[in-house]
């Protein structure tokens, strides 16, 4: 089943932004197999004092496992540009035992609306490919990280060949940022120790240090 695509080209200033009408797809079993939350958690290794930021949070795919894992510890901020997505996330966490820990922040102009050095670990989950200027955005994320802070980037890799008739999934090929390009952007933005964590399929999970 198609998940992150197709994008609504009438939505957003540059046509790459996820269509909020498709938000129900974001927790599909197919997607959870491709981007396993357990692999993400292993790479994140959350700690009780962690200040965690989910950038392009959508409906909370990457926030909820951390919220569960820390069970009332930690500090959470979820950022999104789309009010519909933030509203859907608000509804989703309303019934979560630790949902009140998550601060929802709208990024009005697509910026990183967080103070300098205020985050220990941030994730950009299936979101780097939607950003208009990925390098400028990564530089802004780095600014928001505390010394030694980490950024995790999960996104679709270059498309793989498909059997005839096999349904294509994910963002359009021309929007994707393949693994090597994502690594190079992180280094160019000033991150160090850029490594790939295992467990994602036709997709990557990168961990980079400020
Ligand atoms: C494909 S969805 C992924 C959502 C979530 N991270 C997940 O993996 O399920 C990408 C999200 O990024 C948001 N987004 C796009 N551009 C953004 C920006 N410049 N700042 C913040 N959020 C943005 C979209 O509204 C959408 O909710």
Topology:
Elements: H1 29-34, H2 37-44, E1 51-55, H3 63-70, E2 75-80, H4 83-94, E3 102-106, E4 119-125, H5 134-144, E5 145-156, H6 179-188, E6 192-197, E7 203-209
- Helical amount: 25-40%
Under CATH at level 1, the class stands as Alpha Beta
In sequence order, what are the helices and strands, one letter per element?
A: HHEHEHEEHEHEE
* Class computed from helices, strands and strand pairing: alpha/beta
Strands in their spatial order, largest beta sheet: 3-2-1-4-5-7-6
* Average pLDDT figure: 90
Specify the CATH homologous superfamily: Vaccinia Virus protein VP39
Q: Give the termini distance in whole angstroms.
A: 36 Å
Continuous helix count:
6
Looking at the structure, the CATH topology is Rossmann fold
> Which CATH architecture is right?
3-Layer(aba) Sandwich
* Total of domains: 1
Give me the Rg, rounded. Answer: 16 Å
| β-sheet strand percentage | 15-25%
Major pleated sheet: 7 strands, mixed
Report what the structure shows.
With 210 residues, the chain is an alpha/beta fold. It has a single domain (28-209), classed as Rossmann fold (3-Layer(aba) Sandwich), CATH 3.40.50. 26% of the residues lie in helices and 23% in strands. It has six helices and seven strands; from the N terminus they run H-H-E-H-E-H-E-E-H-E-H-E-E. The longest helix has 12 residues, at 83-94. The structure holds S-adenosylmethionine.
């Amino acid at each position: 089943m198609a998940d992150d695509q197709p994008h609504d080209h009438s939505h957003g200033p540059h046509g790459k932004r996820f269509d909020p009408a498709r938000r129900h797809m974001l927790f599909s079993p197919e997607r959870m197999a491709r981007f396993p939350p357990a692999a993400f958690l292993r790479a994140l290794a959350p700690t009780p004092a962690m200040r965690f930021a989910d950038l392009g949070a959508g409906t909370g795919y990457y926030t909820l496992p951390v919220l569960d894992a820390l069970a009332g510890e930690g500090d959470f901020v979820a950022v999104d540009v789309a009010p519909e997505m933030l509203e859907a996330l608000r509804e989703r966490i309303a019934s979560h035992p630790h949902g009140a820990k998550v601060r929802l922040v709208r990024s009005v102009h697509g910026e990183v609306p967080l103070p300098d050095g205020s985050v220990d670990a941030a994730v950009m989950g299936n979101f780097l490919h939607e950003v208009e200027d990925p390098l400028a955005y990564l530089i802004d994320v780095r600014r928001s990280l505390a010394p030694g802070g980490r950024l995790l980037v999960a996104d679709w890799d270059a498309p793989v060949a498909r059997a005839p008739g096999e349904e294509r999934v994910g963002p359009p090929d021309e929007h994707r940022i393949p693994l090597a390009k994502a690594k190079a952007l992180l280094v160019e933005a000033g991150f160090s120790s850029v490594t790939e964590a295992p467990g994602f399929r036709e997709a990557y999970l990168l961990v980079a240090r400020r």
